[in-house]
Amino acid sequence: MDRIDAMQAFARVVETGSFTKAAETLHLSRTTVTQLVQQLEARLRVRLLNRSTRKVNVTADGAAYYESVIRLLADIDDAETSLSSASALPRGRLRVDVPSPLARIILVPALPAFYARYPDIQLDLGVSDRVVDLIDEKVDCVIRGGELANLSLQARRVGSLPLAAYAAPDYLKRFGVPLDPRELENMHHRIIGFRWSRTGKVLPYAMHNDHERINVQGRYVFSVDDGNAYLAAGVAGLGVLWLPEYMATPHLASAELVPLFESWRLDPMPLYVAFSPNQHVSAKLRVFIEWVSELLTIYAPVTSPQRS
């Protein structure tokens, strides 16, 4: 038994939840993958996987072993990359979760340039605005806006998103143009609520001018937990909304949105790449983080909050 081959087969079965799918991705037969895992279990004298006719589940021992295996395989990849001129570029599978608007507007359109630089990285992109458990969901890193709730994560700040308030011309025609953000607290106006996945709540926005700072809650008749749907609701005229500049810019150019409260400001939203504190930072993860940081200097360079 080749122990490295067996470890790779075991890791891929855990990641795909299937001997058949693991065999397909490794370009091996299902029988070969099954035999490799069985030989590994025999060597370790531990059951790593529970098999049934429908699915494969990792055991508690198998889950602990898997975490060690993926670190070891990443180390091997790094060692080979650093020594072999034929393998000078990082390679392998990278699992990343990003907010849906960031993926649609910035990240995905820029991927051809990423693959021109790193053609051997297999990127599995999860697109959501929910909180992702990096360990349970076997995600290498996440990109998230706002201060991180989980302070145990390793994180690198890669951007600062300028924010402002906007509304569609149709909304302003029907409800009037609010001149002060406090007008959104009365029954005449309405906002679009964005439900943050960490709390499930629609949180207020802190706005300030040269003289004071206020929290604007507003009244909503529609809320949503996805950034793309939130933007669509604003363009549809359902209420006032707060957006990062990169999301609003195309819709300002097409006159689908109008900026509000231009004498009022919001602190920029920090943008982080976060990953598990126990995770080995492989070459492929390191170059991805560097690439994201470089990309975001165009759209959202890191700045410090402006306090009034």
Automatic annotation (TrEMBL):
Keywords: DNA-binding, Transcription, Transcription regulation. It comes from Pollutimonas subterranea. GO terms for biological process: DNA-templated transcription. This is LysR family transcriptional regulator. GO terms for molecular function: DNA-binding transcription factor activity; sequence-specific DNA binding. CDD domains: PBP2_CrgA_like_3. The keyword Transferase does not apply. Belongs to the LysR transcriptional regulatory family. Residues 1-59 form the HTH lysR-type domain. It holds the Pfam family HTH_1.
